[in-house]
Amino acid sequence: MKRLLAFALLLVLGLAAAAQTAANKKDMAAAKEVEALERQRFEAQVKKDYAFLEKVFADDLVYTHSNGKQNGKTDYLQSIRDGKSVYDKIDVEALNVRAYNDGKAAVVNGTITIYQPNKPDGTPNVAHLKYVVVQVKDAKKGWQVVLWQSQKQPEAKS
């Protein structure tokens, strides 16, 4: 009887470990996929690739800019179309993705530098930002950004 119980316990523990390993693999694969999508998203913002941005931003997106202003998906995309949000270049300096729930949700945090057109006086318009994004995987639409928040970082002193 003790051997049977011990065998049953080992079997249950083995199955649990296998399930955890499968979940970890799903999370790791999801994290890699989301990291690539983040880089594509920033590139799409520079290139004004509205088709990609429409797909990657959830309809209920909440974007809190570094100045505290909030936009939804429609407002934010319109700000790019209207030239209120213009990006000459976006450099991704650090990117960390953690996936959860068997690869169905991800939290991203990173550091970027945004280059925008020069200010009216001709000085460069550069913003160093830390940001956080939450993405969820929709069964039909794929990965979508549902929350995005950024914070300006102080300029590096020489």
UniProtKB/TrEMBL annotation:
Signal peptide annotation: 1-18
Pfam family, one: DUF4440
Record keyword Zinc present: no
Domain DUF4440 as annotated: residue spans: 34-145
The entry's keywords: Signal
InterPro entries recorded: DUF4440, NTF2-like_dom_sf
Protein name (Swiss-Prot/TrEMBL): Nuclear transport factor 2 family protein
